[in-house]
Structures are given as C-alpha cells and as structure tokens.
Amino acid sequence: ICTSLSLIIINKAPGMRPQMLIISRGGTRKLLNLEEVAAAATELGFNVTVAEAGADVAAFAALVNAADVLLAVHGAGLTNQIIQPTQAVVLQIVPWGNMDWMATNFYGQPARDMQLRYVDSWSTMSTRRRRASRTSTRGSTWCSATPRRCTSRGGRRSPRPS
User: Fold this and answer.
1) CB–CB of 89/117 below 8 Å?
2) pTM exceeding 0.70
3) At 119, which CATH number?
C-alpha cells in the first residue's frame, strides 16, 4: 500500500500534500486501529480527513470530490467513488472472510471502469484476534492488511508485493 500511495505524493505539485479521506463506520466493519492508520498516512505525507457520511450530503460529497485517496473498509461507503475525480485512488480494505467476488465486482471493477486507480488490501488478522473480534467487536476489521492488487493508470496490474 505504501508504495502505491507514495506515487500519489510524487505526482503532487511541490508543497502540496495529497488529500486522503478515510471513511469511518460506527458499527460493523469498523477499523479498529483507525488512529494508527491515519497517523501512518500522515507520516507518509497526506493531509488526512476521517469522516462518516452524515446528513449533510453536499458537504460530504465535497470532501470525497477533493480526495486524492479514498480509503474505506468494504461496504456502502465505497460507493462514494462515483464522485471522485478521474485518476484518484480507491483503497478498499476487505475484511477477513470469503469476499473476493464482492470486493472485485462491487467496487474494484467499477473503480477501474471510472478510470480510478484501485488498490485492495485483505485483512490478515491472526486467529486470536479473530476470536477476540467475534466476542468484543463483532464485524470490525484490524488493518494489518497485505496489498493484493494495484492498478496503474494504464489499467495494468503490478505484481503482488512479496
């Protein structure tokens, strides 16, 4: 993920920090280490905004449209990619489970079709953490993810990082 996101920084004008919008959720598919993810993105050079879609649709749409990177756990929040500018990045964190088809067909392929750069990362929670999340934070996701696919501007996929 870091390599893909570093390319965004390189493509920005000098002195301009790229904008990252992290869509947070309160219930299921919650990012358990949201603060750590936001801090890591800030350390990479992003201006990070964490927001949850609310009643002010126009204000939220403006946030999405201004974002160079939209990061969200798999779910309805990723439908906001339809108002992202062309060549922006959509980073989908896919929770643990058998979600290949949904992740690709609901958000991955549509992002590519809209000329967005798409990256998906898959949860690699340990067995112990999965058990803990079932009992205390059901439906939540811990972002210790491994990049699976990266799509460049030309639609070519880069090899999976080792």
Assistant:
1) yes
2) no
3) 3.40.50
